[in-house]
Amino acid sequence: MEPHAAAADVFPHVRVVLGMVVGLGVTRILSGFARIVQHPTQYPLYPVHLAWSAMLLLVLVHFWWWQFGLHAIQHWTFPIYLFVIAYAILLFLLCALLFPDSMRDYESYEDYFYARRGWFFGILAATYVLDVIDTMIKGEEHFAKFGTEYLVRTPIFFALSLVAAMTSSRRFHLAFVALALIYQIVWILRLFDDIG
After folding, report:
1. Is residue 43 classed as helix, strand or coil in its secondary structure?
2. Which residue in 172, 8, 126 sits closest to 76, CA to CA?
């Protein structure tokens, strides 16, 4: 039987795999933006779609930053490793949903966005659940760092994601993405300024 690898040896390996998946998501978003710049009139743009794209880019960069907290895990198991990779894969899928391989069946990004909103917001809701598990895996001290706000914020954004999956109200979607983007920026600046 193999001896357990030291946490200090496992974490860099996990971080490399996470980096590959996160890199695919960042590539997808940046390639989508580049395609818009290259062919600005090919499909009419939609501000809500662009805002979610910016939000996902921010979330991916933030995900890579906050996953440094995984260094605190002293005993890595395959289920924990699989969980962390699954979380990153869901983030990649969100990026792939924002910028599909082909837009041939759609007239605009708005048309595409609302046709795929159930998938997009269903997966987004799942990421809020995974975030709670991820935070607990990093330990009680890490979880406590976010206080009551985290326990209120997370179910609210989970519920808003479920509503977004079911409604095609343009006003709701505009308000939701504006709230999500502003809150995410403020959340990062307040609680994740340093990596400690």
Report:
1. coil
2. 8
The three-state (H, E, C) secondary structure of 52-79, written as one string: HHHHHHHHHHHHHHHHHHHHHCCCCCHH
- Mean pLDDT throughout 167-196? 87
Q: Comparing 107-111, 130-134, 138-142, 162-166, which segment has the lowest mean pLDDT?
A: 138-142
Angle at 147 between CA 144 and CA 153, to 5 degrees: 125
Six token digits for residue 98: 């924002």
| Residue 88, pLDDT above cutoff 70 | yes
The token pair at 106 is 């759609």
Confidence (pLDDT) at 14: 83
Cβ neighbourhood burial of 7 (10 Å; 0-12, 13-18, 19+): middle
Q: Assess contact for 94 and 56: CB atoms under 8 A.
A: yes
Element (H, E) at 47: helix 47-66
